[in-house]
User: Fold this.
Amino acid sequence: MAEVSVEVSATDCTDLAKVLVRADPGGALAAALDVPFGRAVRDGNDALVVRTAPDAWLLLAAADLATPLVRRVEALGAGEFASVVDVTHGHALARLTGTTAAVVLAKLCAIDLADPATPDGNTFRSLVAGVAVTVVRDDARPGRLTAGSAGATPAGGRDARPGRLTVSPTASLASLDRSDALGSAGATPAGGRDAERERSYLLLCDRSYRQYLRDVLTDAGEEFGLAWT
Amino acid sequence: MVLLPCPHCGPRDAAEFGYVGERAARPDPGAATPQQWRGYLYLRRNPAGWADELWLHRAGCGRYLAMSRHTVTGDIRAVRDAATGGAD
Amino acid sequence: MRLDGQPGEVIHRGTPLTFTWNGRPYPAFAGDTIGSALAAAGERVFSRSLKYHRPRGLLTADGNDPGCLVQVDGEPNVRGAHRRVSAGMAVTAQGVWPSLRFDLKALNRLAGPALSTGFYYKTFIRPRRLWPYYERVLRRFSPGGRVPSPSSPAGRYEHRYAHPDVLVAGGGPAGMAAALAAAEAGARVMLVDDQPALGGHLRWGGPDGLAALAQLRAAVAAAGGIEVLTDSVVTGQYEGGLVAVVQHGLPGLTERLVKARPRQLVAAAGLIERPYVIAGNDLPGVMLSTAVRRLINLYAVRPGARAVVFTANDDGTAAAADLARAGVDVRRVVDARDGGDIVRVRGRGGVRAVECGDGSVVRCDLLVTAVGWTAPTGLLTMTGGRAAYRAGAARFVPTELPDGVLATGGLVGDGTLAELIGHGRAVGQAAARRAGRTAPASPVPDLVPAPHPELFAGRTNGFVDFTEDVSTKDLAAAVAEGYDSIELVKRYTTATMGPTQGKLEAVNTIAVVAAATGRGIPETGTTTARPPYAPVSLGALAGRNYQPVRRSPMHDWHVAHGATPLVAGAWIRPDHYGDPAGEVRAVRQGVGIIDVTPLGKFELRGPHIPDLLELLYVNRWRKLAVGAVRYGVMCTEDGVVFDDGVTGRLGEHRYLLTATSSGAEAVGEWLERWLQTERAHWRVHVVPMTDAYASINVAGPRSRELVRRLTTGIDLSPEAFPYMRVRLGEVAGVPDCVVWRIGFTGELSYELHVPAGNGLRVWEALLATGVDLGVRPFGVEAQRILRLEKGHLVVGQDTDGLTQAYSAGLDWAIKMDKDDFVGKPELAWQRVRDGQVVLVGLQPADPELVPPESSQLVEGDRRIVGRITSSRFSPTLDRSIALGFVAPDLAEPGTVVTMLLPDGRRLPARVMPQLAHVDPEGKRLHG
Amino acid sequence: MKLRRSLPRPARYSGFGLLRHALGGAPWPPVWRRHDLRDRYDVVVIGGGVHGLATAYYLAANHGVNNVAVLERGYLGGGASGRNTAIIRSNYLTPEGVAFYHRSVRLYESLAADLNFNVMFSQRGHLTLAHTDSALRTMRWRAEVNKLQGVDSSLVGRSEIGSLVPHLDVSDRPRFPILGGLWHPPGGIVRHDAVVWGYARGADAAGVHLHQDTEVVGIDVTGGRVQGVRTNRGRIAAPAVVACTAGWASTVCDLAGVALPITTFPLQAAVTEPVRPFLDTVVVSGTRHVYVSQTDRGELVFGAAVDPFPSYSSRGSLEFTEGVAAHVLELMPALAPVRILRQWAGLCDMTPDFSPVMGPTPVEGFYVDVGWGTYGFKAGPVAGETMASLVATGKTPDLIAPFDLARFTDGRLVGERGAAAVGH
Ligand SMILES: Cc1cc2nc3c(=O)[nH]c(=O)nc-3n(C[C@H](O)[C@H](O)[C@H](O)COP(=O)(O)OP(=O)(O)OC[C@H]3O[C@@H](n4cnc5c(N)ncnc54)[C@H](O)[C@@H]3O)c2cc1C
Ligand SMILES: NC(=O)c1ccc[n+]([C@@H]2O[C@H](COP(=O)([O-])OP(=O)(O)OC[C@H]3O[C@@H](n4cnc5c(N)ncnc54)[C@H](O)[C@@H]3O)[C@@H](O)[C@H]2O)c1
Ligand SMILES: Cc1cc2nc3c(=O)[nH]c(=O)nc-3n(C[C@H](O)[C@H](O)[C@H](O)COP(=O)(O)O)c2cc1C
Ligand SMILES: [Zn+2]
Assistant:
C-alpha cells in the first residue's frame, strides 16, 4: 500500500521554557522587546517573543533556557517596574502542523484563521474548545520549537528568506523576523482550508488542560488522520 | 453571538467576556451612610438605553474594559481599557 | 406510478433499493425521497392530522410538506418528502393507532365541532380531581414521532467555524449568480442550498431551465473560491452576523453545524408556494403546482390519474402541461385570472371530485393549486429586517434589510431567468464590495414582485394550518371571542406554531384574521419570526459536546491507585482511595499526603502588595515579614465572606497568595479588577500560578521527618521553620519548590508547591521515602473530616451567599481600625446588629449519629433556629461532630439544641465551646 | 363606546356548554371587551401580565374595588407571562419564600375552578438533579425547610431518578454524573397563556377595564404622592398606581423617581417539535444550567439561566440553543435527533437576592410588584392576591412583608439564589 499522507500532525511541546514578562508598554523593556500586541517574533537567541497582552509578553525557548532568559530580560528592564517570571510549568503547549491544521483548528476556535486575518507571525488568545488558549501562527520553522529541542531547523522556512536582520546573540531581544512582511493575502476558500500551504500553530493553555487539549485536537483531527509525534 | 469590540483584541464573541456590572462610584467607606452604601451595593440605573458598564475580556487580553453599551440595540459607542482614565 | 425517464430526474434507476414502510418492503431508486418512493408505489396517505386524525398525503413534496412527517428508525418527525431513502431504512407512520390505514383516533372527528378552538380551556374544569385523568387522555392524542430508546446509539455531530466574505443562502439561479459574481471579485464565498444539488426551481422547471442550470453549475464548479454546501440549510442569522448552517449527508457524520460569520449574507431563498384554503383542502390528492412538478420532473412519479388544476399564475399552467405530458388526464384548468374559482374538494380519504365556483363538479383524484407565493422573509426579519405586504403581488416583501444582509431572487421579486441572474450578479458584486473586495459597481436592477391576485381562502371552511389542524372557522371563532390581535389568535388557536412555523400557513392565517376583524392585512401584521428558520437537531447544536477537564500532574497516579474520582468544578480530584477513615487515622497518627494542586495560587510582584492585601482582606498585612505566612479572609462589598487562604511573603516585593480551589478563578479576577479599575496607579503584577505548581500537603506528626528526608537547603527544625512560615528550597532534587508550614488538617504539616512538571516525581518520592513512616495518600474526603475535626470553615459550605464575616465566627480576623477594606462598612454595621446567626461547633448527644448536612435546628413545631452546615463521623474522636449556624441566643457553649433529621427524628446536640473538636489549643499544629 | 351599567356574567365554560355551542353554532361571547379610557380610576395597574391581571382581578373579586384599569403597552400576556416555561413549584430555600410560593401553588390548584377557565395545571412532579455534593447539600436544605412548611419535597437517589425518568443517564459515564435529586411531587407546569386569559376574563367580568396598546409614558407625582399616569392615549388620574412591569420595572419606576435594585437580563427558552410523551416530570439541572418539560402537546420546552449580560432585547442566540442541547444530551443522550423548532427570549428583572420586591415605595400611593426575575409566573396568583389586599386595605400582608423594597436599604436580604438561580 502506498504511504498514507498525513495531512496534519501534532506535537506536545509542554517542556519548552516559558517566561512571562509584565511591564509598562511605554517603558524601556517594552521598547527592547519591540513586539506589537498580537504578534510573535523570534529574537536573536531562538526565543519566540509573543506579545500576549498590552502589558504582557510570553517568551518561549528551548527547555533549558528559562533561567538565562529570565536573567537576560530582567537586565533589559532594570530600573523600571517590571516582572519576569518563569512560568514554564504553568502551561501546556502543543504544536499543530499540516496542510489541514487550520481546518482542524476551525472546528474548535471561532477566530478567522485565513491569511488576511491571522497571517504567519500573528497571535491571539481566544477560546479553543471552551478553554482560553494562546494561539501563535508560526509556519516558518515548525521544527524549531518542539519538545525540548532548541536547534533542529527544518529545510526551507523563514530562515531562507533574504533580508533577514542579524542581531548578535547578546543584543536585546529585538525582533528578528518582522513577520509583517510575511503572509500572503491570497484568497483561501471560505472555510479556511488551503490545500497547498502547510501551516503551523502553537497552542498554549493552562497546564491542567494538557490532556484535554490533546484529546480535543485528536478528536477534531481524526478526519485528517491527525497523528501525535 | 454578539461581537464586542475589545480595544486591544478587536471584535470578539461575547462568550470570551465577563460582564461585571454597571460602573458606579464607590462612596467613601468612612463617611457613607447605610443608605448611600447600600445604594451603591444594590440600586441600579438599569437603563433601557446607554449604560456604562464594566466588562472583563476573560478569554482574551484579560483586561477590564469600560464600555458604553446600548441595552436595547446592543450598539457600543465607546470602549476603553478601564485602567486608562477617559471621558466617561 | 413511475414514469419513463425524465430529462431532469434525480433518481438513479441503476441503483434500486428496498426500504420498509410500516413494516412492509417497498422498492425505490437511489435519489428518491421517502415520499417520492412511496408515491411511486401508489401510496397516498403518509400521516394523520393532529386533532382530527384525518389522513394526509403529499401537499408540497418538499421539506415543508406537513403531510409527510414520518419516523425513520429512531428518528422522529423526519421530513419524508425531503429525506432520501436508503437501503434498509425502516420508515413508519407517526402517532397512529393501531395503524395508519385504520386509525381509531380518527373517532375524534365525530367530536369535531366540540374540539373547536380553545376547547381545552372550556372543558375538564370540574371536578378538579378528574383533570389528571383527562390530561392523560389528551397526551395520548399528542402528535409527533417517538424519541429513540435510552440505549440507542447516538449519531456523530460536530461544529465548524467559517469566515467567508460572502455567504449565499439559497442556490437557485439568483443565488448561484450572486455567488459567481462575488467570487469573480475575489471574495471567498460559501454557497448553501438545502436541496441535494444546486439549482433551485430550475431543477424541475423544464428544458430551458435545465440548460441554464447546467451552465450555472459548470461555472460554479469552475470558479475558484466558492465552497458549495448542498443538503445544508441556513437555519438563521443571529446577532453579530453569525449565520448557522446545518450540513447533512457528510460521510461519517450525522450532521455538522457550521457557524459562519460572513461579512455579507446574501439571502436567495426563493419563494414558497401557498396552499388554498377551502373545504377538503387537506385531502390526500390536493397538491401544490410545485409539488406535482417536483414529482414528475425530479422523481418521474405520476401524481394522479385525473386532475383539476386551479391556477392564478403561469406556474399552474406549466404544471398542467407537465401533468399532461406525464399522462395525467387534466379534466379542467380553472383559471382565477379569468374569474374561475373552486369551492370545495370532495372525498373521504382522498380527492374524489372538485366543486367549482360555477357549480360544476369535476371528478378527479388530484387537485393541483397554484394560488401564489410566500417570500420567506422570516430569514431576514428574525435579525431585524422588515417586511411589508404588497397587495398587488399578494405577498409580503422585504422592505428593510438587516445590516450586512442583501437579498436577491424570488425573495425580492420576480423576473425572467435572465433578470434573476442579472439581479443576482449585481447583488453578488455589491456583497463582494461590501466585504472589501473590488467589484464593478454596476447598479442593482429592479426586481419587482409580479402582479398576482389575492387568493388566500375560498368561501368554505378549510384548513389554514395543516400541522395544527386549524381551520378558517377556528380563526374566526378566536377573533369573535376577543383574541383579536394576530399574536393572540396565534396563541389561542396555535396556528403557525407547528413544525412548519408558518412557512406555508402564516400569510393565509393573517388573511383570514384580517377578514374576520375587517382590519386588512397590513394592519393585521405578522407574528414574530424566530430562529431557527428550519428545525435543528439537538445533536447538531451540541456538536462534539467538549467538556473541559482539569487534571493535576498526579492525576494518572490517582487513577492507577484506585482513587474514587470527585468532580470539583472543572477539576477531577481523588475523593478517597477506598478508606477515608483509615486515611484520616494515617494523618493523625503518622503521615499522609494529599494532592491539593487545584488550590488557587498567585504570585504577586511589586511595591504595593501590602496595600492591595490590606484592601482586599479583612485582616492586617503590613507587618508581614519575609518568610512569614498569614491566613486571610476576603469579603465582598456587602460584607459577605468571599474567599480565604494563606499568603506568604517570599521576598521584598514578592508574595505568593493562595485561594480556595473553587474560588481561584474569581479571586484572580477580583485582584485584577481592583488593580485595573480602582487602583490603577498601584504597582502590583499578579501572575496566576495555580497550574505552575503541583501542590502536595504532607500532614501528620511524622510529616517533618518525611519532608526532612527529601529537602535540601531548608532547616526544618521547629525553631528555624515554625508554624506559619514559608521557605524556598529543593525537594526530592527538584529546585524552586515553595515549602509552607501551614495546616488545614490541624496536624503538623507542610505544603509543598512543586514546579508542576516535577509534581509526580515528588509525589512518588514522598511515598517511597516514607514507607517506614506509614505514609499514605489521602483524598478530599479525609481532608474534609480532618478540617472539620479541627473546626476550619469551608467558604461556600459553612457560609452561604449572605453570610457576613461576623456570622462566620471570624471576629478575630476583622480589623475595624483599618482605614478601609472591602466590605468594611457593612461589617461595621453587622457588628452592632442584633439577631445575627453564629457558626458554632456541635456534637450530637448520640455519638453514633451523624446528622446529614443541612439538617435544620428547630424550636417548637416548626421554627427554624439554625442548621448543620458540616457533619462527619470523626475517626479521631470516635464520635460524630458538626459545624452549624445557630441563633445568637443558642450560641452559648453547652446549650442543647434540637436537630430535625430528614427522616423526621428530633434529636439533641450540644453547642461546643469552640469550632475545633480536636486539639482546640493547636498543640499538634505548632509542635 | 358607552359603558354598560350592569355587567353580563360571562358564559360559563363547561363540557356541556361546549357541546351546546358546537351544535347550536352560537358563538362564544368575547372574553374581554374594549373600552374608552376613563380620566380617573381608583387603581391603575401598569402591565398586563399575570401579575397585573391577577392584582386587578383580586382587587375586584376579593375587595370589590372594580374601578380599576390595567394598562398594557402591547397585547395581554405579551411580556414574560407569555413567554415563560410555566413551571410551578414551591420548593424554595428560605422559610419566607417557601411559605409564599406554597400559597401560590394552592391557588393554582383551584384556579381553573375559580376562574372557570381550564389553566391545565399539571402537577406531574418536579425533579432537580444534583451533580455535586454542594448541590445535594443545598437540596437537602431546601427539602428540610420545605417539609417544615408543609411542602412535599425530598431527596431521591439515582435509582429512583432512573425510574422516574428512564431517559436520564444515571450512570457514571457523564462528565458530571447525577448524584441525586430533589423530588417535589406538587410541582409541575401550567398552560401559561390560559392563566393570563383566565385572569383577564375574570377581571373583565368583574368590571375591570383592560386597555391593550396603552403605554404609560409618565407618572405624575406631587408632594411625594402619586397623582396618576400619562399614557399614549391620554392622562389618567389615580390615587393608587401599581407597577407590575417585570423586565421594564426600572424604566417604569424611573418615571416615578423610584430607584430599584434591579437589572434586566434576557432569559431564553426553546421548544422542540412534538414527540410522543416520554417525559412525565419537569427535570432541572442547576449545575448543567438547563431544565426541560414536555407539554401535553408533546413539545419539549427548554430553559436555562439568564443570559450572561443585561439587555432589553428579546432576540435569541445560537449560543443558547447550543448550550441547552449540549446539556440536555448530557442528561438524556438519546434525544440527539429531536429538533428545536423555535427559540425566544423574555426579560427578567433580577434582584440581588433572587427574591421579589413587593409593596409600597417612597412615593405614597405608588406600589411595586416587581423583581420577579426568572421565577415570577408561579407567583402570579399569590402576588395578585396579596398586592390587591395591600392596595385595598393599606395593610401589608404577612406573606409579603419580607419582600419590601426597604429591605435593601435596611440590609435584610432574603437569599433565594440557592433555589432560584436555575432560571424558572
Ligand atoms: C423564558 C422565561 C422563562 C420563565 N420561566 C418561568 C417559570 O418556569 N416559572 C416561573 O414561575 N416564572 C418563569 N419566568 C418568569 C416569569 O415569566 C415572570 O416573572 C412573570 O411572567 C412576570 O409577570 P409580570 O406580569 O410581572 O410581567 P410581564 O408578564 O412581563 O408583564 C409586564 C407587562 O408590562 C408591560 N409594560 C411594560 N412597560 C409598560 C408601560 N410603560 N406601559 C404599559 N405597559 C407596560 C409589558 O408590555 C408587559 O406585558 C420565566 C421568564 C422567562 C422570560
Ligand atoms: N421558486 C419557485 O417555485 C419558482 C417557480 C417558478 C418561477 N420562479 C421564479 O424564480 C424566482 C426564484 O428564483 P430564486 O433563485 O430566487 O429561487 P429558487 O427557488 O430557484 O432557489 C432557492 C433555493 O434556495 C433554497 N433555500 C431556501 N431556503 C433555504 C435555506 N434557509 N437554506 C438553504 N437553502 C435554502 C431552496 O431550496 C432553493 O433550492 C422567483 O422569483 C420566480 O420568479 C420560482
Ligand atoms: C410554554 C411554551 C410553549 C411554546 N410552544 C410553542 C410551540 O409549540 N410552537 C411555537 O411555534 N411556539 C411555541 N412557543 C413560543 C411562542 O410561539 C413565542 O415564541 C413566545 O410566546 C414568545 O413570543 P414571540 O416569539 O412572539 O416574541 C411556546 C412558548 C411557551 C412559553
Ligand atoms: Zn481583549
